[in-house]
């Protein structure tokens, strides 16, 4: 093939600019500013979720006492669910063309959920997890609100399924912690 004429090169560059605009527009039908609020609420949820996840690992490893077998297993079940949700949240942020918070430093700085030591009783661990659930639920509701405001049914659908599951886990851990 011969070398391109200047004209051909100009035409190609125009076409690729046009394609780029086309794809940016087609990307979910939302512009970047449209999704800024959703992304912000997703990042806040992500930071809290990461700290919660690490607490579950801490408690899975370090729980002792008569409830060891129950709690050791339940905490594992919970952290497996958490890690899947965390991945979905971060990838949803990527879908909108933003970069999710990705460092532990950022998570610690932005999380309302706080870490604890390892020397807690099983019941203290359960009560920490219940408090975490409540905080996470409030951040999930923020995501739902932002998604509904923007008409973003994809994020709304994702977050609704998280909320439903977390409400069920909240009930189960509450039942476990209730003395009769
Ligand atoms: Fe394990």
UniProtKB/TrEMBL annotation:
<keyword id="KW-0238">DNA-binding</keyword>
<dbReference type="Pfam" id="PF00210">
    <property type="entry name" value="Ferritin"/>
</dbReference>
<dbReference type="InterPro" id="IPR008331">
    <property type="entry name" value="Ferritin_DPS_dom"/>
</dbReference>
<protein>
    <submittedName>
        <fullName>Non-specific DNA-binding protein Dps</fullName>
    </submittedName>
</protein>
<dbReference type="GO" id="GO:0003677">
    <property type="term" value="F:DNA binding"/>
</dbReference>
<dbReference type="InterPro" id="IPR002177">
    <property type="entry name" value="DPS_DNA-bd"/>
</dbReference>
<dbReference type="InterPro" id="IPR012347">
    <property type="entry name" value="Ferritin-like"/>
</dbReference>
<feature type="domain" description="Ferritin/DPS">
    <location>
        <begin position="40"/>
        <end position="177"/>
    </location>
</feature>
<comment type="similarity">
    <text>Belongs to the Dps family.</text>
</comment>
<dbReference type="InterPro" id="IPR023188">
    <property type="entry name" value="DPS_DNA-bd_CS"/>
</dbReference>
<dbReference type="GO" id="GO:0016722">
    <property type="term" value="F:oxidoreductase activity, acting on metal ions"/>
</dbReference>
<dbReference type="InterPro" id="IPR009078">
    <property type="entry name" value="Ferritin-like_SF"/>
</dbReference>
<dbReference type="GO" id="GO:0008199">
    <property type="term" value="F:ferric iron binding"/>
</dbReference>
């Amino acid at each position: 093939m011969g070398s391109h004429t200047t004209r051909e090169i100009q035409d190609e560059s125009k076409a690729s600019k046009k394609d780029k605009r086309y794809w940016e527009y087609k990307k979910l039908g939302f512009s970047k500013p449209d999704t800024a609020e959703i992304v912000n609420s997703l990042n806040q949820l992500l930071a809290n979720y990461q700290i919660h996840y690490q607490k579950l690992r801490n408690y899975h490893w370090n729980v002792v006492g008569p409830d060891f077998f129950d709690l050791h297993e339940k905490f594992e079940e919970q952290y497996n669910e958490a890690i899947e949700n965390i991945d979905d949240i971060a990838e949803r942020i990527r879908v909108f063309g933003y970069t999710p918070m990705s460092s532990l430093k950022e998570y610690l700085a932005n999380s309302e959920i706080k870490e604890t030591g390892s020397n807690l009783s099983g019941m203290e661990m359960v009560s920490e997890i219940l408090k975490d659930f409540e905080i996470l639920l409030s951040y999930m509701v923020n995501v739902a609100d932002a998604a509904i405001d923007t008409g973003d049914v994809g994020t709304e659908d994702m977050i609704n399924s998280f909320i439903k599951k977390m409400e069920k886990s909240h009930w189960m851990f509450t039942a476990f912690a209730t003395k009769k």
